[in-house]
Amino acid sequence: MNIFNSFLTYLISTLFRTIGLFSATTTDSLAKAAAGLWFRIDKKHRNIAIQNLTRAFGREKSPDQIRTLAFLSFYNIMRIPIEIGWSERLTLPELYRHAEIRGLHNIRAALAKGKGVLALTAHMGNWELLPSVAPMAGFSADIIYRPLDFSPLDAYFLRLRTRFGAGLIPNAHAMRKILRQLKNGHVVAMLMDQNVDWYEGVFVDFFNHRACTNKGFALLALKTRAPVLPIFMVRNRNRFIIEFCEELELIQTGDRTHDIEANTLRYNQAIEAVIRRYPDQWFWVHQRWKTRPFSPWHRE
Fold it and tell me: Please, what is the average pLDDT of the chain?
């Protein structure tokens, strides 16, 4: 990285640290005000969030409830940079005091199988603090990620995510490193809740609508037989809850296409289940159903 980009990274870090100096009451007010402004002026993402929520909950919630959830998802996103800044000045033991771990026996049982663990996660709560989970729970972890296009910001998040010992695996040409880290008994985590192009995924249900979902996770599970464990970080008032869910049994029928689709559907169902519990904490501004299934051209 050149000197100019290093300087920009320093400015970004300073900005986050400055935000983190404010009191909890002040930062909460700032997050709500920023979310309110963003919700009013950003028609595109406001509509995406409302449309997504309507698709998911249209039969269960009123338009007013859906609009409220859309705003709360904006608020959730605005809290993330504030919490990042706040966490920057904490040591690991200090961060522990703000978190509660649930289901630790699930991750320990999965690791005891000796094949490493594939951790299924999503853009829930403050997912940027997830790399801190590993040392809290006493295991080594690696996160599969896509490097950011703006290199100074990417450098900042690289330092943030790895500062407590977590590793990062760029998603391009990642297979060899993933296999090595699983062999070493690591937990390898992947965010599985975003839209992909048709050639990268399979179409399986998500909130009762077909969503193109990354098939790479299912391929990894079938290749390695590593246990798959959903892991999520959500908020409960002013505390973070880290949930290690029960292992998802691998579906193996010998039909490769069927097994990829069936396992990927199971992963979507695990993500949907946690979103239903915390609907205000998911990333609803993302166009999750953007890629549509192929259909023949209509003829008169």
Answer: 93
> Distance from CA of residue 297 to its chain's centroid?
36
Query: What is d(CA 228, CA 246) in angstroms, rounded to the nearest whole number?
Result: 9
- The C-alpha atoms of residue 77 and residue 192 are separated, in whole angstroms, by 18
Tens digit of each residue's pLDDT (9 = 90 or more) over 234-253: 998 888 999 999 999 999 99
Q: 262 φ, ψ to 5°?
A: -65, -45
Give the span between the Cα atoms of 222 and 256, in whole angstroms. 9
Overall residue count recorded for the chain in this entry? 300
Structural contact between residues 233 and 126, judged by C-beta atoms closer than 8 angstroms: yes
3-state SS assignment for residue 128: helix
What count of Cα atoms within 13 Å lies in the side-chain half-sphere of residue 39?
21
Asked if 201 and 215 count as a contact pair (C-beta separation under 8 A), the reply is yes
Asked if residue 84 lies in contact with residue 128, where contact means CB atoms within 8 angstroms, the answer is yes
Tell if the pTM clears 0.85, that is, is over it. yes
Burial profile 276-300: b = 16 or more Cβ within 10 angstroms, e = fewer: eebbbbbbbbbebbebeeeeeeeee
CA distance 185 to 246: 18
Q: Kindly report the backbone phi and psi dihedral angles of residue 274, in degrees, each rounded to the nearest multiple of 5, phi listed first.
A: -75, -35
Say whether 179 sits in a helix, a strand or coil: helix
